[in-house]
Amino acid sequence: MTAPTFDVIAIGNAIVDVMAPAEDATIERLGLAKGGMTLVDTARAQELYDAMGPAKEISGGSAANTLAGLAALGAKCAFIGQVADDQLGEVFAHDVRAGGIAYATPMRAGDPPTGRCLIFVTPDGERTMNTFLGASQFLPPVALDETLIASAAVLYLEGYLWDPEEPRRAMRRAIDVARAAGRMVAFTASESFVIERHGDDFRDLIAEGMIDILFANEGELATLTGESDFEAGVAKVAANVPVLVATRGPHGAIAIAAGKRAEVAAEPIAKVVDTTGAGDLFAAGFLSGHVRGLPLADCLKRGAICAAEIISHYGARPEGDLKALVAARTG
Amino acid sequence: MTAPTFDVIAIGNAIVDVMAPAEDATIERLGLAKGGMTLVDTARAQELYDAMGPAKEISGGSAANTLAGLAALGAKCAFIGQVADDQLGEVFAHDVRAGGIAYATPMRAGDPPTGRCLIFVTPDGERTMNTFLGASQFLPPVALDETLIASAAVLYLEGYLWDPEEPRRAMRRAIDVARAAGRMVAFTASESFVIERHGDDFRDLIAEGMIDILFANEGELATLTGESDFEAGVAKVAANVPVLVATRGPHGAIAIAAGKRAEVAAEPIAKVVDTTGAGDLFAAGFLSGHVRGLPLADCLKRGAICAAEIISHYGARPEGDLKALVAARTG
């Protein structure tokens, strides 16, 4: 096993977020599941966009957000994800590369266009996401650079990509490649609806020992384990993954590794502006510590710091100097 | 003369801003004129975009920004400007319409793409703009809906549009239409370099009595009048325009109308985050009072309030509730 060239390589949806503030009444009138993520087709995306106020476009995508945080913290990162050959595809590719992340997946010609996520942000800071996957669901197995995957210490995968068929097959292949090279596989459950549809797949992966690091929030853990009690869910999964990270929003997070447990409180912030990317950046902070071999509690603390930064402003890509924030708050 | 259907109709460049923070050293290394606006071609735009950090896309365009402010303040507005039939064109059109502004200029097929402005924002909040005009410079005279123009109390024009030939002719025609209908013509000088190139045109328009309301900042006034002394410049122009509004950034603004002069200090704000759109929103606030027949000092106060809101966050489109802000601060 050779020394890894990259710290983390991620495979994820390549998405540009289209974000606008919205009142709770609008969420209700449009029939949206507040706080959730829903997949939408072209017609529904257009309907929702028409109903949306003046917006901002900010690159997103769960795993890509995590990499943006990791890269800002000094990790060497690479991304694989599919955009179309259009303006939003250029925007996504620019933002990933400008963050110092290696990204070489060729743009895909023709329809559908680059994926986007219409995000309504209510005054309480909660985000309601409506994702038009577009080109990202056509990530072909051939787009996987297997040498690249084998060269990263951690392969990071988002559950969202399990939904479309082509990327799902690509992800399974990527796991095999990473494991054959002796690398770690990290997985984020992404969203309860993904687990409802593909939970058996995820549970199989866990049971087969394919997942080294699992990220899930409270709701996802419940869906994954069928346990409504948080601790019961934790116990069920922790037995089968070397590292489990379970986040609880404002109630902090816990991690269990090699039978040891650590906890962290949420970092205090002045105002929750937009929760988009909270889980993604928690994962970034945690992994940034994990790849350096830091103790579990320190990894959690980094996760909490990064999550706090991202929810203090619009958008799921870090704005503040994460390195400086982590340095200031971890002493 | 029939009662106007719209308060303000504006003709301007249809631009999406691409904004990213940058250090002063980057501005210098890229050879940018800090604080200014420079027109760039495709190659230079690509070069600058490649050098830019992760960015956000937020609709812009000087006159469109002013309308966004006016509409937020309750004015009935319409916009004329040219986008291409592409994703950024859709973004621009959506954001204008979502702000409640009537906008019916057909998208233009083929190259060039929708105009964009690459904006580097330094830690002091100063913005350095690099504009790729794209489709906006091909606004054809036929795009002017003359009935619409004649139906608005104020025709608002941006100097930026004087630079490309087709829009320049369209603007001259629009002025004739508005004046024939007995409407007011408001004009923003936009930027010193525009005045350097088209100052004779602007001075002719003023001398011919074609401009009822002129907006200019200190630097633009100096270029327009050839007077380096602010008061000398004011005196020179005020004699020929019914309403002159001259802004001085952190030093507030003055207005002169019918021989009367009013002044306003800049509104205090916690931190200047991004000065993009300061002049545009000052104009919005001022005009919102002017179309209601408010006293000059009140119009200026509204301008200062709107300018303060826009420089307290990224982007040149209002985020705060301008109506509430104005209500709270004008008593």
TL;DR of this structure?
By secondary structure, chain A is an alpha/beta fold.
Distance between the termini of chain A: 35 Å
- Can you identify the CATH class of chain A? Alpha Beta
The parts of chain A where pLDDT drops under 50 for at least 5 residues are none
Provide the domain count of chain A: 1
Counted by DSSP, the helix tally of chain A is 12
Structural class of chain A: alpha/beta
Largest sheet of chain A: 9 strands, mixed
> Could you tell me the mean pLDDT of chain A?
95
How many beta-strand runs of chain A? 14
Biggest interface, chains and residues, is:
A-B, 26 and 26 residues
Textual characterization of the structure:
The structure is a homodimer of 331-residue chains. Chain A has a single domain (6-14, 62-103, 137-330), classed as UDP-N-acetylmuramoyl-L-alanine:D-glutamate ligase, CATH 3.40.1190. Chain A contains twelve helices and 14 strands. With 331 residues, chain A is α/β, with parallel strands linked by helices. In chain A, helix 7 (192-207) packs across helix 8, helix 8 crosses helix 9 (230-238) and helix 11 (296-310) packs across helix 12. The model of chain A has no long low-confidence stretch (mean pLDDT 95). In chain A, a hairpin with a 5-residue loop joins strand 12 and strand 13 (253-257). The first copy, chain A, has helices spanning 24-29, 42-51, 62-72, 87-98, 146-150, 165-180, 192-207, 218-225, 230-238, 278-290, 296-310, 322-330, and strands at residues 6-11, 15-21, 37-39, 56-59, 77-80, 102-103, 115-121, 127-132, 152-158, 184-188, 213-217, 243-247, 253-257, 260-264.
